[in-house]
Amino acid sequence: MSSKILVVDDKQIMRDSVAATLQRAGFAVVTASDGKAALKQAGKHRPAAVITDLRMPEMDGLSLLTELRAVDPSLPVVLMTAYGTVSDAVAAMQQGAFDFVQKPFEGDQLVMVVRRAVQHRELTNENEALRTGGARTDAVPSLVGKSTEMRRLAQQIHQVANSSGTVLIAGESGTGKEVVARTIHAHSPRRDNVMLCVNCAALSSSLLESELFGHERGAFTGADQLRKGRFELADGGTLLLDEISEISPTLQAKLLRVLQEGQFERVGSSTTLSVDVRVLATTNRDLRFSVASGQFRQDLYYRLNVLPIELPPLRDRTEDIPLLAEHFLATVAMREGREPRRLEPQAVALLKEYPWPGNVRELQNICERASVLTRSGLIKPDLIQPWLQTPGPSAPTTPVPVSQGHAPTPIGHAAPPHGQELPPRVAEGPVRALEEVERAQIMYTLNYFSGNRQKTAKALGIGVRTLGLKLKKWKEQQLIAQSA
Ligand SMILES: Nc1ncnc2c1ncn2[C@@H]1O[C@H](COP(=O)(O)OP(=O)(O)OP(=O)(O)O)[C@@H](O)[C@H]1O
Ligand SMILES: [Mg+2]
């Protein structure tokens, strides 16, 4: 059965175009023209992934994202953002979006992101699997890296896997905390039992309580049947509590009890239940500060921190970058049944210099995009450079309107540039960077269209005259540089 995708956009032309592209790629599609309708459609159709516009009247894409994730934290949501709004895209990722695509984008790019989202959904949907037929062993992603830090990590994982103590995995977003948790479970004596995961940041306190501990029928309005919580469902296995720093004081107390005694009650029940669950927790904050500021119970912190694991940011293990990139390119190639794309040495150098605020996840996204967008088997530095921007009031990311095959008609290109309010420039530095990005983008596109200025200007959304003036200026600058 084909996976169902929910497409949300207030503009019909955009909805139709995205829907048609996805249908051609074999997905079933349902659409909605605003956030409210989208929530209804999501409830009715239970899509495998959602792709939504960011800017919409009334409920915008970010609010929709929050609402959807509150109901179903494992539902991947992809945001469509406008040209030049890199800060919006970053905000979306920080709020838990699966990925974003910048308009105008290619059909290929869209299909690739949606395929990944669906695959991710399949991998993380353990609970469904459990409810409909028992435990299943998920494919454990491999932990790639040869740096001293990664070797030390492998050792630590090996040491904690056999224990039943609680592990607190700390690290910035995208450093691989979940992969580490899955690896620990896969090497533990519980490996044949289920591992479940709850994102503590995605649910309100009361929803989280019922998600963790379950509820009796009639426990609150809407509780029309008994529901087991994750602690009960994970009995004999492992429970991953993601973003543990976000739980409320009431739940902190309940959690402490279940960690100490293995006991709890369902919401609305006085019967005490006992379970044998190993808890792994992740945090991207330093919990010691949360303890110091009174937001997190000290006793719970000590209880969780029995076996601490600290994941270093990617910028502190640059020697892993080429290996990871190769790994991600090979994974895409295997999925698509072709030879892996390769990175030009200068492209590798660029990747090694970048500080990676989104860590390994950001590197993975960039490798996957580059893999689809490159026209040859080789990824050149000018393809990836526009994506390597640190968030903040600096240069915006430029979309890359190129793909393989016939000349592309980027989706969303005709849309009014409602997101074109570029971030303010800062006094120094970024002005040059912006021009370099622009130049790389223009040269790449021009090359793609074999020097045809009309097509290049159209794809980039600028006038042919403007393009001509820019090319003339760069040519003159080059001549000056050569004669100097
Ligand atoms: N060492 C690694 N080797 C291979 N893939 C990795 C590695 N580290 C991370 N990844 C990949 O990077 C992505 C992000 O990893 P993961 O979800 O584990 O990060 P995280 O720290 O849990 O992030 P967040 O804090 O945002 O939840 C995943 O797709 C994961 O498979
Ligand atoms: Mg995570």
Summarize, please.
Helices cover 46% and strands 13% of the residues. With 484 residues, it is an alpha/beta fold.
For the largest sheet, list the strands in their spatial order: 2-1-3-4-5
% residues in beta strands: 5-15%
Major sheet size, sense and barrel closure? 5 strands, parallel
CATH superfamily of the domain at 148-314: P-loop containing nucleotide triphosphate hydrolases
Distance between the termini: 65 Å
Query: Whole-number radius of gyration?
Result: 24 Å
Say which molecules are bound, naming each kind only once. adenosine-5'-triphosphate, magnesium ion
Q: Assign an overall shape.
A: globular
| Oligomeric composition of the shown chains | single chain
CATH topology heading of the domain at 148-314: Rossmann fold
Q: What CATH architecture of the domain at 148-314 would you give?
A: 3-Layer(aba) Sandwich
Protein name: Transcriptional regulatory protein ZraR
Domain Response regulatory: 4-118
GO cellular component, one term: cytoplasm
Pfam families: AAA_lid_14 (PF25601), HTH_8 (PF02954), Response_reg (PF00072), Sigma54_activat (PF00158)
Verbal overview:
This protein is α/β, with parallel strands linked by helices. Among the domains are: 4-125, Rossmann fold; 148-314, Rossmann fold (3-Layer(aba) Sandwich), CATH 3.40.50. It contains 20 helices and 16 strands. Helix 4 links the parallel strand 4 (77-81) and strand 5. Helix 2 (35-45) packs parallel to helix 3 (61-71). It starts with a strand and ends with a helix. The model is unreliable at 127-138, 392-409 and 413-432 (pLDDT under 50). Magnesium ion is lined by residues 177-178, 242, 282.
